[in-house]
Specification:
The protein has 159 residues and is of the alpha+beta class. The chain is 35% helix and 20% strand.
């Protein structure tokens, strides 16, 4: 007769925690947490807008305030906008913005005039916060786009 061994101490508790976490993340509406929508393993994000701006250390708070007063509320109203991250590189004194879009078509359908109006508002708020009288206190250094890759195993077999 084979005798069954009991579960190791703590394993049922660990399994319960993992199951709870999976259930929590699976139903989470935030695309940043519930990263996969498609069973094939592709991201629900079609494209990530990638921007870098010059942000001196003493201007970090002014940059964040200008972003919050202009781009943040405007982006929240745009079709296809998922979320964005604002990051700061202390060594380069640059801010990096990663803006996630559900569709490249939705992102590119935004009229340039609308973008220009929000940029003007951003620059106005930035000048007020920094005491600058002209120009953009946080000029654009880089503009690009990134496409997510599917997280599927690579086929490393020789062809």
């Amino acid at each position: 007769m084979t005798r069954l061994r009991p579960w190791p101490d703590g394993l049922p508790r660990l399994m319960g925690l993992v199951l709870s976490l999976v259930m929590l993340l699976a139903g989470h509406p935030d695309g940043a947490i519930a990263a996969f929508q498609d069973p094939s393993g592709t991201y629900d994000v079609a494209v990530v807008e990638h921007l870098r701006v010059k942000v001196p250390a003493e201007g970090r708070q002014a940059w964040l305030a200008a972003e919050q007063g202009s781009w943040e509320p405007w982006l929240a109203q745009q079709d296809g906008f998922l979320d964005r991250q604002l990051l700061w590189d202390a060594e380069r004194e640059e801010g990096t913005l990663l803006i996630r879009w559900a569709s490249k078509d939705q992102w590119k359908a935004i009229p340039p005039e609308a973008v220009d109006a929000v940029q003007a508002r951003f620059e106005e708020l930035a000048r007020q916060a920094t005491g600058t009288t002209a120009g953009n206190p946080f000029p654009l250094v880089f503009e690009g786009e990134l496409e997510p890759l599917a997280l599927q195993p690579l086929d490393l077999q020789p062809q």
